[in-house]
Each structure stands twice: as C-alpha cells, then as structure tokens.
Amino acid sequence: MTTHLFDLSIDNIVVEDGAPPPERIISGDPKFKTWNMEEQPGGLYAGVWESTPGKWRIEYDEWEYCRILSGVSVITGEDGEERRVGPGDSFIIRPGFKGAWEVIETTRKEYVVRL
C-alpha cells in the first residue's frame, strides 16, 4: 500500500556511504552518509545527508533546499562570499552555484533536490 504522507525518519532506511570525488577535495578526508527517503520520476529526491569534516569544491546543476539539523559548515561561493550554517538554518542552492563546502563540525542536513 502506498502512503501519501510519511515522516522523514532515517529509521529503517539503508544508509549509502560516499565521499566527494578525490579531485574535488581541498582538505581533510570527508565521508558522507546519505539516507535517501524519497525518489520520484523526473528527478525529485528527499532525505538526510551527513558529512564528516573536510573541504571540497562543489558545482550545482540541480536545485536544492537544505535544513541543517546538526553541526557547522561554511559554504563559499566562487565570488568569495561565505555563509556559515548551523542547526536550524535553511537555505536554497540554485543551479549554477560553484564554490566550496567546508564541514567544520560533522554536519547533518535534510534535503530536497530537484534535477
């Protein structure tokens, strides 16, 4: 039976381990955990993502809404503008954004991505 309403809980979701591609890493040894809870045709994804400390280059082709659950990160645009994000912060990253993501303290976020 398909439900049309469910909680965003990582309980009973298989975690996917990952990391940035080696050529994008600027510093540290960041490791990712992703709990993808929703995937819809047309490229819509929602779930929880976590990273250990490190810094890597990012380039967004997709649109992403994020809400930081725990930890501290700094997102820097290629223009040098920095944004420090922590628990409770919500933001959108639009396609075309380029820069760096630095995890200062292990960071966990909820995300919704639209390709």
TrEMBL record:
Record-annotated (S)-ureidoglycine aminohydrolase cupin domain positions: 42-111
Gene3D superfamilies, alphabetized: Jelly Rolls (2.60.120.10)
The species this protein was found in: Hyphococcus aureus
Record-given protein name: Cupin domain-containing protein
Superkingdom, taxonomy of origin: Bacteria
